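Render this sequence as a predicted structure.
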Amino acid sequence: MRYHSTNNPSHRVDLKEAILRSLPPDNGLYMPDELPVLGEDFWRLWRDLSFQEIGYAVAEAFFGEDVPEDALVEIVDGTLEFDAPLVSLAEKDHILELFHGPTLAFKDFGARFMARLMGWLTRGEDRELTVLVATSGDTGGAVASAFHHVEGTRVLILYPKGKVSGLQEKQLTTLGGNIHALEVDGSFDDCQRLVKSAFLDRELSERLNLTSANSINLARLVPQSFYYIHSARRVDETPAFVVPSGNFGNLTAGLMAMRLGLPVAGFVAATNINDVVPEYLDRGDYRPRPSAATISNAMDVGAPSNFARMQAIFGQSWEQMKATISGLACDDASTRAAIREVWDTHRYAIDPHGAVGWLAARQWRESHPDVPTITLETAHPAKFLDVMEQELGANTVEIPDRLAILADREKVATPMAAEEDEFKSWLESR
C-alpha cells in the first residue's frame, strides 16, 4: 500500500517511510491512498470474534501487503495482552474502559503496536532510532513504557511544564535508560510545534533518524480502531461513540473503523473549553488558537493535528463531517459535577476526561433516546488523584501498584524553552 500527504496527494511513499519518517515534508499527515474495507466474511462473523482476531483482521487490511502474516500476528498478540472491558452504567449508557494497560491509559494500545511495527520495519539495521513525542499527559507515559529498554532506540518526551498531573509526570521522568524527558516552558501545542519543527528540518531528521510516536504517526491510530469494533459487538443495537478529544487521534481511529464497515450511529467529539472542533462543527469555521489549561489536561489542545485526517476522510466536506460527528464542550465546573454525579448515582469513579465524555453522552441521548452510547474512558482516575479526592474524598479511588511505586521516585527532566532553535540545538548536541 502507498501513503500520501494530506497536503499533497502526489507526494506518495511506502509503509516504512510513512511510519518511520512520520511527517511529510510539506507538514501534512500521511494517509493510505485508499482506506480499506473489511469484507462480508468478516462482518458475518464479527460479533463472535475475539479481540485478537479483530486486531489481526484490521491490521491485515491496513498493512498486510507489506508485513507478513506471522509478523502481524506477533505484533497484535504483543499489543493486546490486556482487555478493554465494557461497563454498563444504565441500559443505554456504556463506558469503554481503555486503561487496563501498563500505563493505565488508552495510549497503551497505539504505543505498543507502533513499537512492535517499528521494530519489524527496522529489523537487521544497526542505526539508532530517535523517537520524538509531545505529550499532554498520557501519550508520553505509554510511549516510554512501550520503548523502555528497546535496543536501538532512544525516546525524547516533550511535556508542558506544570500542565500534567503529578503521577503522569512521574511516568515520564523516572524510567531512565533510553527514555529522556524535556520539560517545556509552554503548552502542549508548543511541544507539538517543536516536534514538528525537527521533522520538517529534513537534513536534521534524516541525520538523527527521527521518528514520531504522536498520533501524527499512522501506526498509532490503526490499533485504536480495534477497540471500537471490539466494544460495538457487545451492544445489541448500533451504538454512537462518545470520544473525549484533544488531538483527535482517538476519534480519527473511530472514523477509520467506520470506513472499515463498522455500523455506527454517529460520533460525539467531547471536549473541554478547548472547543476548536465543536466550534467548527457548529459554524463551519476552523479557528485553531492557544490552548487553555483544564483539569482534563490531556485534552488541552488548541490546534489538533488529526483534524487534517478528519477532513480528508470526509473529502473536505463540512456538511458530511457534521452529519456524522456532533461536537459538545463543557467547562471544569461541569466536569467536576459530573464526577460527583456518576459516583453518587452509579458508584463508579470516572476520571476528568471520561466525565467530559459522560456529560456529552447524556446530552446527546436527550435528542437520540433510543440510541445506546459508548463513552471512551481513556485513563484510570488514579492518574488524577488530586481532582478525584477533591470531588469524592480521600481513599475513594484505589491507586494501582504500578502507579503507587512511582510516588517516591526522583523526577529527572531537562528544562527547555518553547523555542525551535534551542530545541534543535539541543538535539544536535545529543
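Summary. Residues 83-106+220-398 form a domain with the Rossmann fold fold (CATH 3.40.50.1100). The mean pLDDT is 95.
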